Amino acid sequence: MKKINVILGICLSLFAIAGCKKDKEIETIKIAMPSGAPILSQLQIMDKALDEEFQIANYKVKFDIVNGADGVKAAITSKSHDVVVAPINLGATLFKNGSGYKYLANVTNGNLFFASTTKLESINDLNGKNLVLFGENTINDAVVNSILTKNNIEPNENITYLADTSKTQAELVADKKENTVYLVAEPVLSAARIKLKAQGKEVYVLDVQKEFSVVNDGNTFLQAGIFARENLDTNFIDAYLEEVKSSISFVNENNEEAAKLAAKLETGLPAENVLASAIPGCNLCFTSSQDAKDSFIYLVNLAPKYFGGEKPSEDFYY
């Protein structure tokens, strides 16, 4: 009898150990996002994830900040990450090519601005100006050209394109060209405004997103969205999207606190004073893929070549 009890005790102990191991083997969802404004949509969740006990629908989460569009493209094509924050046109193109990553929601609605030390009061003030832009042959280019064309804007000379917004920002700060308007994105625009203010100069801006909406039937310039592999647990997706909504609300309502949090998390975003000023212009806004669909299709029809040539099938939208 003692022998049986000993064996039974050993078996129960083994089951207990196995149970403990099983409890510890919690699956981790990997989330990738590009450096820059889209990080802000995940900020509060990233902070929560520092706590080893934090879970979303019984899953742990791990965040990776990758290098621009190339980094998020690699995260999707290699399937190294379960969830990816990416430019919407990239997500749509890769889905058409068989990526299997569905569009869950939109999180930023454009962060582009026309900026100049020359006074700008309306879009008509771009007439006769030298324009220095970035993003040639991208969706940004299509959005800006839509605004110029539909407002009958005639620049002073051929438009100049630079490599990226850091280059247009540098020229704006240098302020060596008269009668010139630059396309600059947040958050680097706020950095430029602070630098020029220290020199006693004012920066005048026009919101590209608002100007786009005015001449495009109220449609939104959707910029960055969340994409997830198609077989990902929907319980996780639904709970995660609620977390994203909460994170975006927190950032929009608490700019200074969010900027401090970004510094704490070593996100690579600008200094706290710059970022706090920039957050409103980053246009963080949670929109489900179903609610964003009309504006999404409008953008596809406006510039189909940047979306794989045609609108995605219905199963693209979560």
Could you please describe the fold and organization of this structure?
The protein has 318 residues and is an alpha/beta fold. The protein folds into 2 domains: 24-109 and 222-316, Periplasmic binding protein-like II (D-Maltodextrin-Binding Protein, domain 2); 112-215, D-Maltodextrin-Binding Protein, domain 2 (3-Layer(aba) Sandwich). 44% of the residues lie in helices and 19% in strands. It contains 12 helices and 11 strands. The protein has helices at 2-24, 43-48, 68-77, 88-96, 139-150, 165-174, 188-198, 208-215, 234-253, 255-264, 272-278, 289-302; strands spanning 28-34, 60-66, 83-87, 101-108, 112-116, 130-134, 160-162, 180-185, 204-207, 224-229, 284-288. It has a 6-stranded mixed sheet with strand order 2-1-3-10-4-11. Strands 7-6-8-5-9 form a 5-stranded mixed sheet. β1 (28-34), α2 (43-48) and β2 (60-66) form a beta-alpha-beta unit. α7 (188-198) packs across α11 (272-278). The longest helix is centred in the first third of the chain and has 23 residues, at 2-24. It is globular and about 60 Å long.
SSE topology string: HEHEHEHEEEHEHEHEHEHHHEH
CATH structural fold name of the largest domain:
D-Maltodextrin-Binding Protein, domain 2
The major β-sheet equals: 6 strands, mixed
What share of the residues does DSSP label as strand, in percent?
Answer: 15-25%
Looking at the overall shape, the CATH architecture of the largest domain is 3-Layer(aba) Sandwich
Mean pLDDT: 91
Q: Give the domain tally.
A: 2
Give the low-pLDDT segments. Answer: 2-22
Strand order of the largest sheet: 2-1-3-10-4-11
Task: Write down the Rg.
Answer: 24 Å
Outline:
globular
> What distance lies between the first and last C-alpha atoms, to the nearest angstrom?
60 Å
Which CATH first-tier class of the largest domain would you pick? Alpha Beta
Q: What is the CATH superfamily of the largest domain? A: Periplasmic binding protein-like II
